[in-house]
Amino acid sequence: MTLDIVQMVLVTVLAAATPLILAAIGELVAERAGVLNLGVEGMMIFGAAVSFAVAMQTGSTLLGALGGAGAGLGLAALFGLLTVGLAANQVASGLSLTILGLGLSGLVGANYVGIKRDPAPQLAIPGLTDLPGIGRLLFGQDAFVYAAVALVAAVSWFLWRTRAGLTLRAIGDDPIATHALGLKVRRVRFLSVLFGGACAGLGGAYLALAYTPFWSPGMTAGRGWIALALVVFATWRPLRVAAGALLFGGATVLQLHAQAAGLGLPGQLLSALPYLATVLALVLLSLGGRQGGSPAPAALGRVFTPSR
Amino acid sequence: MRLDLVPRIRRSAVLDILAPALAFVAAVMVGGVAVAALGVSPGAAFVTYFVTPLSDVWSLQEIALKAAPLALIATGLAFCYRADLWNIGAEGQFVVGGLAGGWVGVATHGSGGSVWILPAMLAAGALAGAAYALIPAVLKVRLGVSEILTSLMLVYVAQLLLDYMVRGPLRDPAGYNFPQSVGFEAAARLPYLMEGETLHAGVLIALAAVGLGTFVLARTLFGFEVRLVGASPRAARFAGFSDARLTLAVFAISGGAAGLAGIVEVAGRIGQLQPEISPGYGFTAIIVAFLGRLSPPGILVAALVIALTTIGGEGAQIDLKLPLDLTRAFQGLLLGLVLGADVFARYHVRLVPGGPVSRTAP
């Protein structure tokens, strides 16, 4: 019995962590290639709006998810054109992307406010899903959750076990040297940005199609920014992104329960916890990791223009 | 086919002005297509957005009132961004400034109306905004924590703090449980510039800040330091300028300006504390700062343009049923295009047929 309660809590923690994992794992790849895209929040919410609109129009959750990923990818292409193609400032371009994405999401979602959809279907394997204690957690999730887990594994493998992954990390550390070696710095960076955008869009789609499942303006509520912080917190390592996202998911669930239980604390304080926790996590990280240099990709945030 | 960027030896003064203007034209054209897609005549929308607001006294005042906080915040942000430091939490500093200054207004309510109340409110707002901005600055200087993320996270915290204070300690006891403070007395309000109109003295404060910002950036050693650190950090270090001191200074300036804008809004237009005191001025000011090319005079022009589109957007919502999100999307697109257009002022841009760059290297 208690085992089932523990499982229920873990299921909700995983659900709260999934959008963060999706958005952060994509941003991690872009940052490993040296591109800081602050537009995650914008790509995420645009993905959420488009995915919901597509799913409502077609009746298909899968098409909705693809639409969300595509929306994030589209915005990311704009960002890549600006920062990789035209060498524009990455911080400012990312902010413009967030503002643009928020506006576009409102336009796309305007007709869908207040409509609820059935949540994305969850896996059900007779026998396995009903296993007490772990069945629902391991075999009863929706496809987004499994996709997030698979993406973490795939990105981890790609970055540290393949030649292309090594190239990508090298470009993030020293674009000038890798360019001199004949590697295609701008192409790799652009593709990394696109991957990040698709992941952020998918994270938004999860919110609109599985987590809530409805569309409301501003529904990402800063999750894109928390995903950015997670990448720093995880010192640019995929498995730690997943671990950090679960921690944050846990904090979110804890906050919801505390609010429901009415501990006498102001609700606003509890709502502020995820943001305060993010600041605290960044502080603790830099306190802990002061020796041995920064774990960040050395050329992160710096524009690259090839010399001839 | 590849894109070649060759740095210009000297920045072209003509292109420096032309680039943002062209970006604006391009954004208007894209906006026109979007408006047409929403089933409204682009011509009618253009008139509603950019012409109607200029045609009567009331909306001209509204433009000035909206441009004032934007120009004030963006002038402060220009110091940060010039020095290559990224305070993106001006919205939170605005809120904290409004809260602290408004608190003074609430605390002095019924005290008889001394002439010192308003200056004390303005000072409290600016100081609180500066102090709030110093949190990410100190974390950056001391621990190397990214100022981008901490300053942004503190925006949410500030908004929730204001919400708590207005619903709790600062709520008007005689206000039928509405989440708002008492209405300020006349001594705690910014005076109107003309009898019976909406324009208040906050506009003058913003103009003074723009003037002061122009002078400090262009004519003082500190302004030189800010510009040098942004343009060439190595040179600045050789010149003996301290990174840490400059970081703290520009954050305090930008936070102080945002906090001042916050209390100007509270003591000016609103006249009491409410759960929400900003329609996103702190974020819009980032667009304004870049649209104005990080120079205070340019920022003043940009603030007026953005205020015009915002007022126009409100008009379009009423007259043409165009959603307000269209304005936000337009502003985001405009910022992106301005940043893209900047490339043409900094580089010779060439589309070259042929393979990757490395093969043509000598």
TrEMBL record, chain A:
This is ABC transporter permease. It is found in: Cell membrane. It comes from the Bacteria. Keywords: Cell membrane, Membrane, Transmembrane, Transmembrane helix. The keyword Transmembrane helix applies. PANTHER family: ABC TRANSPORTER PERMEASE PROTEIN, SUGAR ABC TRANSPORTER INTEGRAL MEMBRANE PROTEIN-RELATED. Pfam families: BPD_transp_2. It is a multi-pass membrane protein. The chain crosses the membrane at residues 6-26, 38-56, 62-88, 95-115, 143-160, 190-208, 214-234, 241-263, 269-287. Its main location: membrane.
UniProtKB/TrEMBL annotation, chain B:
It comes from the Bacteria. Pfam families: BPD_transp_2. The chain crosses the membrane at residues 21-51, 63-81, 93-110, 116-135, 147-166, 199-222, 243-263, 283-308. Its main location: membrane. It is a multi-pass membrane protein. Keywords: Cell membrane, Membrane, Transmembrane, Transmembrane helix. It is found in: Cell membrane. InterPro entries: ABC_transp_permease (IPR001851). This is ABC transporter permease. It comes from Methylobacterium adhaesivum.
